[in-house]
Structures are given as structure tokens and as C-alpha cells.
Design goal:
about 425 residues; Serine Threonine Protein Phosphatase 5, Tetratricopeptide repeat; about 75% helix
Length: about 425
């Protein structure tokens, strides 16, 4: 059966939506006509409304874009704390605070100066040299920057560079007693005695109260054997400086070596250590005396392990620790200590001697021992020929005999012995932070 589809019936009449559109157009037209007729009245109202809307939008965008500000630490606070720590003799704490301050004040020469001096006092010579370079970079026209660089380079035994730096400081300020004292020190340490004496005399004449000049004077007089006057000079420098650690260290050494007052010397160093518990130079010296003078290897081990922890690159501390551990029959730890000394670049023939000796003691390893002895022998022979500021000729000749004795069973080449072998023993290792 076929069904026809139903047709959709169209609505009759005027559409409502079309009527609404016409009314809207009419209203808009009337509004425009009204606005044109009343332009002067409506223009200020529209302008004010637009300005308000624009300001609200700008405020909203600015608030969205701006990050929440984070508080910035005032570096002047650390500077004040560093100065207070320095005044109380707590140089270790002062160094830490100056390091923090310099991150925010990289061009503060005064902060750089005291940081470098503090590092020298702590026996951190490699760090001190780097800090001294940063001091000069902070202000290449500061005489104090070049002066402290001279001191740091002196402690690194770079005497020609130290002299050049001190001369540069004096170019910038011919009246700098500090720079002249450091120049005198490097002249004297490098064997230029006449020049050193002249500069030292000029420094003391310009400022008799300069603790830097008094310190250099005391050290020089000590080298001449005038121990009483040297002690007076060092004591004066120590007092005027407010207890500078490097001056106290050398005052204590003089007290022990020249006057055999180990108790008084130890008291000076313990006082410094109480204020600066990680001072590598002081820890080394106390460890050295503990076993070499008092025979207390256990106490020495404590001091020297503290030293190597505080200053991992300190050659004298590693070497003395190796000697103490060897004495305590801790041969494996001693071997590591001596090998660390060589890794750090030592050129001391005693260090190579003991680095080899411990290989024999630990495992009778002649090839390992010979590697060290064959490096140390040429150094020793050169020192015998040219002389040494650290060891006497008698000590070097005795060491040569010891080398031959230990190398012979391992097949070492014969070494000519000196015609005479005076008695002597290994001298006191010079701490690099002195």
C-alpha cells in the first residue's frame, strides 16, 4: 500500500525574531542619534569611564606579571660579624664570613684583604694565593691589594713574584710600611740580605709600631741567633696585631727551639687553637711536638688527622701523619699518607725516602719502593750540591747514606758516600702556613 508523505505546514504571519531585530536596530539608531545630538555632554563621561577601565586592566596585568619578591640578605651584616670575629681572634670564623660577604661585594678590597690574610693564618696557602689574585682584580690600583698578594706569594715560596708585587704596591703608595715590610721579608727569604736589611730598616723608621715590620724583624733576628731580641720583637708584633695566628705560631716555635720552653710554646698554640679549631698550621705544629718531643704518637695522630681533614692539600700534615702512623705500625694508613704527599707535588727528598720505606715495611715491595727512591735521589744529590734552606749539609749527607742502605737490597745503583757522615737527624719540617 502506497502512502503519501505528509507535507509540512508553513506558519502564517510575521516572524517574532525578525520583529525583535528590527526593534533592536531602531533602538541602536536612536541611541546613536541621541549621542550625536548630546556629544558635548556624553564625551567627558565616556572618557572618564575608559580611563578607569584602562587603569584597572593595567593594574591587573602588572600584578599578574610581577614575581613575589624574595628577601635579600644584607652583606653589611656579615661584614660587621666578620670584623667582630677578627677583633676577637676568631680568624677561622672571620674567614667564613668574609667568604660569604664577598659573594655580594666582589669589589670590596678590604674584605678581600682580610680574607687572604685569614687564609694565610689558617695555613691554606693555595687558597690564599687565589684570594690574593682576586683582591688585585677587585681593585688593581689598591696598594694593600698588591701588598697582601706579596705576602701570600712569599708563603708559597714564590719570592721573585712576591718582590714584584711588593714593588708594585710601593709604586702606588711609596709610604706603605706594610708593603715595605713584605718586600723586606721576601728579599731576606730569597737571600738578598743587603736589600732586605735596607727595606726593613726603612719600614721600622717610617712606623716603629708596625706589627708587620716588627714581625719581619723578629724572624730575621731569630735567623741570626739573636733570640732574646727576636722574642721581644715577635711578642710586640703578636700583642699589637691582636694575637695574629701566624705571629703567635712563630713566637711559640722560637720559645720551644731557642728557650726549650715546650710548655709555654704549647700554651700559646692551644690558645690560638681554641679560637681557630681548624688552623692547619697550629695543628701541624702541635702534632709535630707531640710525638717528636713528647713521644706521644697517639696524641700526635689526633692533631694531624684533624689537620689533614681541615686542609686536605697540606703536605707537611700528611707527611707527619705518615711518620706517626709508621711509628704506630699502622703501615697501610702510613703508605696512603706518604703517597698522598707525593701526589701533592712534594720535592722533599725525605718524603720520597719514607714513601719508599713504607712499601718495604708494608709488603716488602722493592719495585714500588724503588719508584720513590729513584725520584728522591736526584733531588737529594742536587740539594747536597747547591745547599738547602731547610736542611743542613750533615742532615743531607746522612739521608744519602740512608738511601744507599735501603736501596742496596732492592738492587739499587750504588751511590757514592760522602767521606764523612756527621751525626744528624731530620730537622723540623717547615709548615707552609708559617
Amino acid at each position: 500500500m502506497y502512502l503519501k508523505p505528509r507535507r509540512r505546514q508553513r506558519r502564517r504571519g510575521f516572524p517574532f525574531r525578525r520583529l525583535f531585530g528590527l526593534l533592536l536596530i531602531g533602538l541602536l539608531g536612536a541611541g546613536v542619534f541621541y549621542a550625536l545630538q548630546n556629544r558635548e555632554t556624553l564625551e567627558p563621561i565616556v572618557r572618564d569611564a575608559y580611563a578607569t577601565l584602562s587603569a584597572n586592566v593595567n593594574d591587573t596585568v602588572s600584578t599578574i606579571a610581577a614575581p613575589t619578591p624574595t628577601p635579600t640578605e644584607d652583606p653589611s651584616t656579615n661584614l660587621r660579624l666578620a670584623e667582630a670575629a677578627w677583633s676577637s681572634g676568631s680568624y677561622q670564623e672571620a674567614v667564613r664570613l668574609y667568604e660569604d660577604s664577598i659573594r655580594a661585594l666582589p669589589n670590596d678590597v678590604r674584605a678581600h684583604y682580610y680574607l687572604t690574610l685569614g687564609l694565610i693564618m689558617q695555613g691554606r696557602i693555595t687558597d690564599a694565593v687565589e684570594s690574593a689574585e682576586n683582591t688585585v682584580t677587585a681593585n688593581p690600583f689598591s696598594p694593600d691589594a698588591w701588598a697582601i698578594r706579596s705576602m701570600a706569594l712569599n708563603r708559597a715560596e714564590r719570592y721573585p713574584d712576591s718582590i714584584v708585587s711588593a714593588l708594585r704596591a710601593l709604586e702606588l703608595d711609596p709610604e706603605s710600611v706594610r708593603a715595605r715590610a713584605f718586600l723586606a721579608e721576601s728579599y731576606l727569604d730569597s737571600g738578598q740580605i743587603t736589600r732586605g736589611e735596607g727595606e726593613l730598616e726603612a719600614a721600622l723608621e717610617a712606623d716603629p709600631d708596625s706589627y708587620e715590620a716588627r714581625y719581619v724583624s723578629g724572624m730575621y733576628l731569630s735567623s741570626l741567633g739573636d733570640y732574646l731580641t727576636a722574642r721581644e720583637e715577635l711578642q710586640n708584633a703578636y700583642d699589637v696585631s691582636g694575637g695574629a695566628a701566624h705571629i703567635g705560631l712563630n713566637l711559640a716555635r722560637l720559645q720551644q727551639i731557642a728557650f726549650q720552653d715546650l710548655e709555654g710554646a704549647t700554651a700559646i698554640l692551644e690558645d690560638i687553637l681554641n679560637r681557630n679549631p681548624d688552623n692547619a698550621a697550629v695543628l701541624f705544629q702541635l702534632g709535630f711536638w707531640a710525638w717528636r718531643n713528647n713521644g706521644n704518637s697517639e696524641q700526635a695522630e689526633t692533631y694531624l688527622r684533624r689537620c689533614t681533614t681541615a686542609a686536605p692539600d697540606n703536605v707537611p700534615c700528611h707527611y707527619e701523619l705518615g711518620r706517626v702512623l709508621y711509628n704506630l705500625n699502622q703501615t697501610e694508613d702510613a703508605r696512603r699518607a706518604f703517597e698522598r704527599v707525593i701526589e701533592l707535588g712534594s720535592t722533599d727528598p725525605y718524603h720520597f725516602y719514607w714513601a719508599g720505606q713504607v712499601q718495604i715495611q708494608a709488603s716488602a715491595d722493592c719495585p714500588a719502593a724503588m719508584r720513590f727512591w729513584q725520584q728522591g735521589m736526584p733531588i737529594l744529590q742536587n740539594l747536597i750540591s747547591t745547599g738547602s734552606n731547610l736542611y743542613t749539609s750533615a742532615m743531607l749527607e746522612e739521608l744519602l747514606s740512608n738511601y744507599q742502605t735501603v736501596m742496596a737490597p732492592c738492587g739499587g745503583a750504588p751511590v757514592p758516600l760522602p767521606t764523612a757522615t756527621p751525626e744528624g737527624g731530620e730537622g723540623e719540617t717547615t709548615e707552609e702556613g708559617a
